[in-house]
Amino acid sequence: MEDRSIKIKSNKNSKISIKIIPGHFATNHSHINYYIDMTTLKYRSSRAHEAAVELAHRYATTTEVDTIVCMDGCEIIGAFLAQELFQSSNLSMNESKEIAVITPEYNSNSQMIFRDNIQTMIWGKNVLLLLASTTTGKTITRSLECIKYYGGNTVGIAAIFSAIEKIGDIEIHSLFVPSDLPDYRTYKFGECPDCQAKKKIDAIVNSFGYSKI
After folding, report:
1. Residues 6-62: pLDDT tens digits?
2. Using CA atoms, how far apart are residues 164 and 59, in angstroms rounded to an integer?
3. Residue 106: enclosing H or E segment and its boundaries?
4. Segment 79-98, tens digit of pLDDT
5. Is 155 in contact with 64 (CB distance < 8 Å)?
6. CA distances, 146 to each of 45, 120, 127, 157, 170 (Å)
7. Counting beta carbons within 10 angstroms of the beta carbon of residue 178, is it exposed (0 to 12), middle (13 to 18) or buried (19 or more)?
8. Helix or strand or coil: residue 9?
9. C-alpha distances in angstroms, 189 versus 101, 177, 179?
10. Alpha helices, DSSP H only, in the chain?
11. The pTM is what?
12. Other C-beta atoms lying within 10 Å of the C-beta of residue 46
């Protein structure tokens, strides 16, 4: 499967790239015709920094951010993004405060939670939500509900890849969009043409990677 991979460079910064593998893949919420490999961007420090610098352009001088909530293993990008926002923004906006970088966990009922010692970084704070990718928006919706429950105010959503442009009245700022991927498609489970054609699923994919079937 890996020998089918195609490298896609960002049209915003040629140093930022992802790999896509065409096929038939299943996520928790949909079926997609590409596995989008973001491993290098998420876990290699130099590439994560490049991604953070590009994402920071959208928020640095216009948005006060107190906390970055990281999903999908984006903590390294989140740390660099916090640094860029702090250094690049008007310092009076944040009153020289540090920006917190946190990640929710899941309880036994699969609900997103923040432990007591972390909740002060959400309550009454301006929060930027950072994700690796979003196709249907369900993860974003759950994340926004969680942030609101703990008293946070979501001021922005950033992603490496997003198949949707906004959730509610919040725009999603992403490094890659569907038009960057040739013929990218996402389907509800019952509407997938590969399933209807009885084509085998290549792999189950989530934010950690993929598992071949």
Report:
1. 899 998 888 999 999 999 999 888 899 999 999 999 999 999 999 999 999 999 888
2. 19
3. strand 105-106
4. 999 999 988 765 445 555 78
5. yes
6. 29, 14, 12, 14, 16
7. middle
8. strand
9. 34, 22, 22
10. 39-43, 45-56, 75-88, 91-94, 116-119, 138-149, 193-196
11. 0.89
12. 9
Q: Which residues pair with 171 in a beta bridge?
A: 166
- Using alpha carbons, select from 14, 75, 13, 16 the residue that is nearest to residue 43: 75
Both structure tokens of 116: 């007591």
The length of the chain, given as a count of residues: 213
Show the tokens assigned to 76.
């390294």
Backbone phi, psi, residue 151, to 5°: 85, 15
How far apart CA 109 and CA 92 sit, in angstroms, is: 41
- Residue 198 has which token pair? 């009885």
Pairing mode of beta strands 126-134, 6-9 = unpaired
Name beta bridge partners: 162. Answer: 134
Paired with 166 in beta bridges are 171
DSSP conformation class of 173: E
